[in-house]
UniProtKB/TrEMBL annotation:
Residues 4-82 form the BTB domain. This is BTB domain-containing protein. SUPFAM superfamilies: POZ domain (SSF54695). It comes from Hypholoma sublateritium (strain FD-334 SS-4). InterPro entries: BTB/POZ_dom, SKP1/BTB/POZ_sf. CDD domains: BTB_POZ_ZBTB_KLHL-like (cd18186). Gene3D superfamilies: Potassium Channel Kv1.1, Chain A.
Length: 338
């Protein structure tokens, strides 16, 4: 690019690029060059970007990010093809996404977003490095693409579910405002025990206080779950609403009391495993699984039965909603204590 006709300064590095390359795809640079030509008469201003002494200065970017943007704009088809494979340098594509979003390279931003999303959706031959996940998460939040953010959320949920890099997950999701993931990370860290998170160097004093707050709040809430079944609207054809509601409350209490149903469930359905009373997420998911199994195979779970409820379908749907909302709002238990 030595024959470039525009000089751009990024940090302390000079780049010479071609005006027609960097101004295409509806980019901000096109507007910049247009303004230079149409709106300003000052010769000194018009010369900005034409020499090393008066380059166009970009603020807030680093050299690697701008170099990766130029790679994308100048890349050959084979290079682009490689960037869409499992062997891709995904950090490079993430840098491209950030820069194209900032400078409004419309179709190139769409390409980068799609490339990263598909890359993360595929079964990679190796684990995604956590530094790459953090970087992609930062860019995904910045750009706000719903599909990419959902894939990112799945990656973090998997990491948190495996109790991997919990402190990093907690601090990253908190910094990026991913509140649903933040709550899951806090709960997972809480379940590790105070002896673990008190020694975790990545956690701040405020985060440790929130963990203590969460311990108290979850302890209180977990004892109330069995007495507060999910609410639902009874069907128009429900023969006896009060009786149906009583049966639902009784069944809910039973399946929330381990001693009441462990013999009939744990032995018949080995897939189910007991969870800590503090593990609200897995506990709620377990309740959904048990009630779904009771609904599908009532004889297997006698004397407990969901199917006999006139509003069994509504009760099951309410439990699914309960579990989903609990997972999305776990952060409510880890409130600030000032």
């Amino acid at each position: 690019m030595a024959d470039g006709d525009v000089t751009i300064l990024v940090s302390d590095t000079i780049f010479k690029v071609h005006r027609h390359i960097i101004s295409r795809d509806g980019s901000t640079f096109a507007d910049m060059f247009s303004s230079d030509l149409q709106d300003f008469e000052d010769d000194a201003f018009q010369q900005e970007g034409c020499t090393d002494e008066k380059p166009i200065q970009l603020q807030g970017d680093n050299v690697d990010e701008f170099r990766d943007l130029l790679w994308c704009l100048y890349a050959l088809p084979q290079e682009i093809s490689t960037s869409m494979s499992p062997q891709a340098d995904i950090i490079k594509v993430a840098n491209v996404l950030r820069m194209t979003h900032k400078y409004h390279f419309i179709t190139t931003e769409c390409w980068a977003t799609t490339t990263i999303t598909k890359y993360l959706q595929h079964q990679l031959p190796f684990p995604l490095p956590t530094d790459a996940l953090v970087r992609i998460s930062e860019v995904a939040v910045l750009c706000g693409d719903a599909s990419l953010l959902e894939v990112i959320r799945r990656k973090w949920r998997g990491l948190i579910g495996e109790n991997e890099q919990l402190a990093l997950a907690l601090t990253t999701t908190e910094r990026l405002g991913l509140r649903d993931l933040q709550g899951l990370a806090y709960q997972a860290m809480l379940l590790q025990g105070r002896h673990v998170w008190e020694k975790e160097k990545l956690l701040t004093r405020d985060q440790r206080i929130r963990l203590l707050s969460g311990y108290h709040n979850i302890s209180t809430y977990s004892t109330k779950i069995k007495d507060e079944p999910p609410l639902f609207e009874h069907l128009n054809g429900c023969p006896e609403v009060s009786s149906c509601q009583d049966d639902w409350e009784s069944l809910w209490s039973d399946v929330n009391t381990l001693q009441a149903y462990k013999d009939c469930i744990w032995e018949k359905v080995p897939l189910f495993t007991a969870t800590s009373e503090f593990d609200l997420v897995n506990r709620s998911m377990m309740l959904v699984s048990i009630l779904q199994a009771m609904y599908d195979q009532p004889a297997m779970f006698a004397p407990f039965s969901l199917a006999k409820l006139p509003c069994a379908t509504a009760a099951l749907k309410a439990t699914i909603v309960f579990s989903h909302e609990l997972q999305m709002n776990m952060m409510d238990f880890f409130e600030d204590v000032n």
